[in-house]
Amino acid sequence: MAEELFDHVEGAAGDGLARLLNAIANASIQIRIEMPHLMGFSDGSNKYGEQILKLDEWTNKFLCDTLVETGLVRRIYSEELNAPVEGIPDAPYVVCIDPLDGSSNVKTNNTCGTIVGVYEKEVGKGSEQVAALYKLYGPVTTVTYSVGKGVHEFIKQRKGEVKFVLSKENMRLPEKAGVYGVGGKREEWPPKLREFVDSLEGRGMKLRYSGTLVADFNQVLHYGGLFAYPKAKLRLAYEAKPLAFLAKEAGGKASNGFKDILEVEDDVDARTPLFLGNGKLIEEIEKLK
Ligand code: AFP
Description:
Layout: H1 5-13, H2 15-34, E1 41-45, E2 51-53, H3 54-69, E3 73-78, E4 85-86, E5 93-101, E6 112-120, E7 131-137, E8 141-146, E9 152-156, E10 164-168, E11 179-182, H4 191-199, E12 206-207, H5 213-223, E13 225-235, H6 236-249, E14 253-255, E15 271-277, H7 279-287
Parallel strand pairs: 3-5, 11-12, 11-13
Antiparallel strand pairs: 1-2, 3-4, 5-6, 6-7, 7-8, 8-9, 9-10, 13-15, 14-15
The chain binds 1,6-di-O-phosphono-alpha-D-fructofuranose.
1,6-di-O-phosphono-alpha-D-fructofuranose binds next to strand 13.
């Protein structure tokens, strides 16, 4: 029988993380059901001054409630909230969430996702995460997770079944880099970086950019290559650190251009430049001056 998510996580990290990650995975079902009904903007904006979609608002609340209901979460930091949600005092985990990554893609029906980083006691450096995962709401729903023992992908089974089964175990970034995607405007990139990006097609790489970080990182994980957003737009705790944890576990690297993202210490709401993918490419970028 195909291995299910709960059993896989429990085997690697015990019952607590298994219950937590399983609850996050299962929340996808309700999120997908709500998607067609919650198009359009809410009245609010988040701490980054961005207008919040009704779906952003609903997904954030639903995920926070789901996490608190597990009884395993002491505090939740969310990209969408000005202050953390307090869970159960003395519960083992603190969680950082980007509830709906790439929500600007909702109105065009392109892929979006959810990103989660899990810590014990309090948010620390990215290397202190005990688990990270992302979900993709694509043609199928996938959950890709790590508890520091490799990266594994699970697929939601057919409609009606609340079951995620193993589709790829111990994923590694292919050594030959196949795709690249760089966000923001070229005029904002340092000139040496522009030259570097211009050289990538000559190395056999193809452009792939969707505007949803998890979707773009997912391509890099499957095909090898580079995702970059050189301007400090992306969120360190909610986007960069969880994906950096997964990239490292898959044999890749993540950097802010100078330093390993997993070692950066900054405010929970800080933004960062992000370079993510095959180690050799990231090292080249760090040497560009
Ligand atoms: P939204 O969640 O507001 O759509 O932002 C998505 C995101 O943070 C990240 O997922 C993308 O990689 C990046 O922004 C896309 O930015 P551009 O729209 O500037 O390409």
